[in-house]
Amino acid sequence: MRILITNDDGIESIGLKILAMAAIKHGEVIVIAPAKEQSAKSQALNIRRGLPYKKIANYLPNITCYAVDSTPADCVRFAQYFLRDEFDIVFSGINNGYNLGEDILYSGTVGAASEGVMCGKKAIAFSTAPHSFDEVKDKIDEVLAFIFEKNLLEYNDFYNINIPKKATSFKYTIQGSTHFETYFFEEGLQVFQRGTPNFHLDEKKQDSDVYAIYQNYISITPLTVDRTNHQVFLKITKDLII
Questions:
Q1: d(CA 42, CA 225)
Q2: Domain 2-175+205-239 carries which CATH code?
Q3: CA distance linking residue 154 with residue 176, whole number of Å
Q4: What residues have CB less than 8 Å from 97, skipping those under 6 apart?
Q5: Please, where are the H alpha helices in 119-188?
Q6: Domain boundaries, the chain
Q7: Which pLDDT does position 44 carry in this prediction?
Q8: How high is the mean pLDDT in each 10-residue block of the chain (242 residues)?
Q9: Residue 85 burial by CB count (10 A; 0-12/13-18/19+): exposed, middle or buried?
């Protein structure tokens, strides 16, 4: 198996290197990551300018590595359409901070995985609590072993996995809500947006990724790139005549 590894935190991310070193135990690894941080870029592409890149020597032992000055999704496309690399799966992450609930839609980490699926590959996005790489370093081998032992990729092509600081066990989940409180503040001539998630408010949805993390489970959420509401489609085609 050939594994393409990318992220949205940039080529120097600790989480990227941890994931690459864990992944090499399961196949041949190539790393193609943004030259600088691209958080919250979702599945954005740069189509109006070129994509500067460089091959990085001695990044990690036995791993070919490129830094691309663009988005995570463009890193996947760089591998697929420029290098014509024969990768089988995209591992994206390990993100510095959770990608839960609505953040799935904003995340460049998840966006890269989604691009991998659109390229006809399998894909997994990995995230953990902010600045907790010491903890996730001890867990990532167990997470990868679980994925392959349970044959999860035979059930679905695309997963979002979040690993808490003090993980107890695994839980299959659905997308929840972070109940994020957003606020803007002005500094100089700029406006900044910040906020606070309230994971505990998702307690009524105990199958959600948010509540799983709040309860210290490793959250495994099957995703799809198809945004059609199939239940509504079937209903309106049955009930409503055009």
A1: 13
A2: 3.40.1210.10
A3: 24
A4: 127, 128, 129, 130
A5: 133-137, 140-149, 152-155
A6: 2-175+205-239
A7: 96
A8: 97 97 97 96 96 94 95 98 97 97 97 98 97 92 97 98 95 97 94 94 96 97 96 91 72
A9: middle
